[in-house]
């Protein structure tokens, strides 16, 4: 079963950190040249696609990276620990600076702008990564199946109320490491993020 995200967004760190890009074409990960950090959020409706009671055996995530000025960096997936929103914000141009958050958007400070905050600015997520891959030049990148990724997806199937998705994190220790990925709103359907889930069903 291959599915696209049910929601995605970018957390933009800046002076006020009230920026977002809920319905934009792109997601951003890593540091800008001024060392402002970007982190992407993705959530997949696993329970709406996979039969209840199934056993997840493997998962892979594919995303298309469409712009960067940096070199090869390892980007990691982290399980998000709190619910978050995708509002109507839509940045213009290359979208790298985001735009003013709309009501219900996730921002660097907020899970839902501007009423509910993260416990920690930049998102609440597991420190240990669930998976990772090296991302260099533009093109399609795949996060290969890992035990923790399988466990995350299985838990989202078994307990959908705890499905807050993954946070995608890049190199935040250097300048100009940012990567731009095509989002679920991208006009080219083939460029949108895709989660492929292998599973077995009882009987």
Short description:
The protein has 203 residues and is mainly beta.
Number of continuous helical runs = 1
Cα gyration radius (Å)? 16 Å
The biggest sheet, with number of strands, parallel, antiparallel or mixed sense and barrel status, is: 11 strands, antiparallel
The secondary-structure class comes to mainly beta
- Helical coverage, percent range: under 10%
Strand content: 35-45%
Q: Shape from CA axes? A: globular
User: What integer is the average pLDDT?
Assistant: 97
Number of strands: 15
Oligomeric state, counting identical vs distinct chains: single chain
- How many domains make up the 3D coordinates? 1
Low-confidence stretches: none
Q: SSE string, helix = H, strand = E?
A: EEEEEEEEEEEEHEEE
Distance between the termini: 19 Å
Q: What does this protein structure show overall?
A:
With 203 residues, this protein is mainly beta. It has one helix at 147-158, and strands at 2-3, 7-12, 19-20, 26-31, 37-43, 55-68, 73-79, 99-100, 110-112, 116-117, 131-135, 139-143, 166-169, 179-182, 194-200. The relative contact order is 0.33. The mean pLDDT is 97.
């Amino acid at each position: 079963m291959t599915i696209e995200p049910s929601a995605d967004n970018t957390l933009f760190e800046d002076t006020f950190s009230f920026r977002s890009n809920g319905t934009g074409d792109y997601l951003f990960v890593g540091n800008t040249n001024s060392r402002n950090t970007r982190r992407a959020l993705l959530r997949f409706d696993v329970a709406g696609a996979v039969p209840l009671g199934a056993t997840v055996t493997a998962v892979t995530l594919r995303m298309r990276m469409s712009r960067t000025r940096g070199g090869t960096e390892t980007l990691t997936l982290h399980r998000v620990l709190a619910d978050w929103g995708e509002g109507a914000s839509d940045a213009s141009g290359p979208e790298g600076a985001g735009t003013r958050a709309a009501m219900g958007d996730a921002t660097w400070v907020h899970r839902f702008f501007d009423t509910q905050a993260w416990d920690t600015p930049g998102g609440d997520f597991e420190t240990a990564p669930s998976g990772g891959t090296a991302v260099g030049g533009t093109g399609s990148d795949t996060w290969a199946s890992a035990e923790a990724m399988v466990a995350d997806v299985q838990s989202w199937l078994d307990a959908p109320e705890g499905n807050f998705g993954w946070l995608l994190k890049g190199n935040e220790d250097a300048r100009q490491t940012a990567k731009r990925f095509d989002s679920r709103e991208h006009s080219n359907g083939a460029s949108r993020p895709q989660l492929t889930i292998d599973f077995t069903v009882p009987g």
